[in-house]
Amino acid sequence: MRDKIKALAKAYAPDFINVRHHLHAHPELSYQEFETSKFVQARLTEYGIPFEVMATTGVVGLIKGKNPDKRVIALRADMDALPIQEANDIPYRSTKDGVMHACGHDVHTTCLLGAAKILNELKDEWEGTVKLIFQPGEEKNPGGASYMIRDGVLENPKPQAIFGLHVNPTLDTGLFSFRPGMSMASADELYFTIRGKGGHAASPHLTADTILIASHLVVALQQVISRNRNPMSLSVLSITSFQGGFTTNVIPSEVKLMGTFRATDEEWRFKAHELIRKISNELVGSMGAEVDVHIDVGYPAVFNDVNLYPVARKKAEEYIGAEQVSETEMRMGAEDFGYYCKLIPGCFFRLGTRNKAMGILSGVHTPTFNIDESAIELGIGMMAWMGSSVEFP
Fold first, then answer.
1. CB 47 within 8 Å of CB 116
2. Which among 22, 93, 144, 357 could disulfide-bond with 136, CB atoms 3.0 to 4.6 Å apart, if both were Cys?
3. Do residues 27 and 154 share a domain?
4. Do 56 and 136 form a contact (C-beta atoms < 8 A)?
5. Is 299 an annotated catalytic residue?
6. What CATH number did the domain enclosing 154 receive?
7. C-alpha 253: how far from chain center
């Protein structure tokens, strides 16, 4: 079975590189993946795979092998792009100004489509059912995974396990990486609006200086991490936007801050939310102004099931060789795959896409991100192999 998958992945790789080129050239932002969804639906129709649409642009296909009730494995890909202007000079560069597949979701969708084609062609040679999840909106709260779950993606049938693949531009092409347990942090968005009496900059004593107050708040919020967090628990709080004022001689009546909060412990996560509100209200109030604090609760942490991990890693080693499989480092980035992991055993793993000799070194979320496209053959094959061979109670 493994050798058949490898042979088909190799044979189909050129076609799916072209699929990736099409998707890369026609990116769509989160929850706007209408044409991408139609493209996926058309491909599944071509392959003879039944599917349904949910969460507006999400697509869920179902492939039944022999003894379809024996096991159900879900394979997930995300479809949305980022609001970034592409700087790559390539034939398939984005045709949409300010929109780019800078996180590799075009690759993820391509690999799952390729795996779907292979799994369907070989469905008489493997047992169980594979659920194909093409989801919208991974890049934007509350995360397309939450909408897919709301609409029943993990039911009828319910998967015993779910796998997600993500490109890794720090890992060489030809390699995969896995990690047991905590793998990525939760992510919450922070919004602060500070309001006070504005006035002439030459008469600060007649105002509540919102610029000064906001500056103090930026510094004070670091106490949440440095003085309240258990040092053994990974967490990050970063203020990333400071907006206020419009000229040199006016103290504004309003300043806005934005930022992000990351955590790897759910109990600490929500305790920190209360500390953020408490510090903000008390500090700003003591300086004569008011503050509105909004915390947009985002993705949960990604926790790879500790029992599924060794099963998945062994399968990867069987497919590509133990020397080609490494351990993923812990990351404070976030992924809405964490929603699935809260409900069923999940395994989120990485596909190496870096090629120093080709100059392919840029990280995700950058205008020059690209991949060594020879990785697509491996991604297609590995997803098909996981779907057809993993058995998990």
1. yes
2. 144
3. yes
4. yes
5. yes
6. 3.40.630.10
7. 37
Residue 340 bears catalytic tag: no
Catalytic member of 12, 299, 339, 340: 299
Contacts of 170 (CB under 8 A, 6+ apart): 354, 363
The domain boundary residue, chosen from 281, 296, 311 = 296
Residues 321 and 227 in one domain: no
Tokens 């009546």, residue located: 253
Task: For the chain, 393 residues long, give each residue's pLDDT as a single digit of tens.
Answer: 999 999 999 999 999 999 999 999 999 999 999 999 999 999 999 999 999 999 999 999 999 999 999 999 999 999 999 999 999 999 999 999 999 999 999 999 999 999 999 999 999 999 999 999 999 999 999 999 999 999 999 999 999 999 999 999 999 999 999 999 999 999 999 999 999 999 999 999 999 999 999 999 999 999 999 999 999 999 999 999 999 999 999 999 999 999 999 999 999 999 999 999 999 999 999 999 999 999 999 999 999 999 999 999 999 999 999 999 999 999 999 999 999 999 999 999 999 999 999 999 999 999 999 999 999 999 999 999 999 999 987
Q: Which domain holds residue 117?
A: 2-184+301-389
User: What is the value of pTM for the model shown?
Assistant: 0.94
Which of 263, 296, 329 corresponds to the end of one domain? 296
